[in-house]
Every structure is written in structure tokens, then in C-alpha cells.
Predict the 3D structure of the following.
Amino acid sequence: MYSSYTILYMMDDKLEISQLLLNIIAGFYEKDARVNYFDTDTLLYHSEIHMVQFIKENQELHLAAIARRLGVTRGAVSQMIMRLEKKGVVSKEADPGNSRKVILRLTPRGETAYRGHKRNHDSYNAVVSKLLENASQAELNFLKDFLEKYEQSLHKTSSQ
């Protein structure tokens, strides 16, 4: 059995881990919520750069297909695309196979923003990889399982 001191110590560790997670989330939120130029002269918000990423990684899709894949309305995608067009990062082209549809492409500025965003992700990935390079498979499995459960609980909490 555990002594009351051991239980208190374990509880303190759990609270400390919880606080560390909250600090990490707050730090990411603060950094991610800020606008970023992503190596361009154009300010891009979190949702905008992720639409740029989606377009780059899902080329030849039209508005309705993007909306379906993202689980949002066609109107929401259309509004976002209009903002990105005004910023010069996305262009619309007529679909050669169907004149009623429009295909989205990144402009050179959009390509630059995509590469800048990818470089940010690569930087985060390198930090995590370096921190975990000496972890055992059991430690990696535990951490992955913990983070997946934590992510699921956050989704549950936010949908209630």
C-alpha cells in the first residue's frame, strides 16, 4: 500500500504534468493564434495557412469537394478562398472537364507561404524527434497513448 506522503507526492506529479500541458497548450495557442507571414509579405491567419496547405496537398479539387473533405459548408470554403484570393495566395481556374466548376491553385506567393508553413512544422518535428531520440519503445508507446487519450478527452470536452 502507498503511504499518504507517497499519494500526495504522486498527486503533485499529476498536477505538475497537468500544469505543464496547460502551459504548452497556452504557448502553442498564443504562437499559433498570431498572424504570420510565412516568408511572404502577406499576413496569414491559422485557418488561412491551413487552407493553403490543404489546397497544396489536395490539388485539382473544386470548392464542393474541399468542403466535403473538410466537413464544412461550401459557403465557408468560398469565403475563405475569397480572402486568400485577395491576399494573392490562391487563384481560381476553370475546370477543363466541367466549365461549371472551379479548380484552386496556389500562386507563387501561396507556394512560398506553404513552404514557410512546412518549415515551421518541420522545426517542431525536429524538436520532438530530438527530445525522444533516446526514449525506449515502451516510453514512446506510453507517451503516444497518453497524448491520444488526452486529445480525445479535449475533443469530448469541447463538444459538450
The chain has two domains: 1-34, 35-133. The helical segments are 4-33, 46-57, 63-70, 74-86, 108-132, 137-158. The domain at 35-133 is CATH 1.10.10.10 (Arc Repressor Mutant, subunit A).
